[in-house]
Amino acid sequence: MRKIIHVDMDCFYAAVEMRDNPALRDIPIAIGGSADRRGVISTCNYPARKF
């Protein structure tokens, strides 16, 4: 029997950064890779999703 598990970690990395630095809570933030490489965004917080 095959099992598939889906874990939705919506905004997880952004939530960790906002927990560690509460000043980031109300401003748009995005978490991603190095800008000099591909610069792929892993996640963003809800204020950033308006963009």
Polypeptide structure, described:
InterPro entries: DNA/RNA_pol_sf, DNA_polymerase-Y, Rev_trsase/Diguanyl_cyclase, UmuC. Its EC number is 2.7.7.7. It comes from Alteromonas australica. The chain is of the alpha+beta class. It is built from one helix and two strands; from the N terminus they run αββ. The protein has a two-stranded antiparallel sheet. Strand 1 (30-32) and strand 2 form a beta hairpin. The protein is extended, with a radius of gyration of 14 Å. It starts with 11 loop residues before the first helix and ends in a 7-residue tail after the last strand.
Which terms summarize this structure?
51 residues, single chain, 14% strand, 2 strands
Main β-sheet, spatial strand arrangement: 1-2
Poorly predicted spans: none
Shape: extended
**Terminal residue distance:** 43 Å
What's the count of strands? 2
Structural class: alpha+beta
Please bin the fraction of helical residues. 10-25%
Task: Briefly say what this structure is.
The protein has one helix spanning 12-20; strands at 30-32, 41-44. The protein has 51 residues and is α+β, with helices and mostly antiparallel strands.
Q: How are the SSEs placed, and which strands pair?
A:
Layout: H1 12-20, E1 30-32, E2 41-44
Antiparallel strand pairs: 1-2
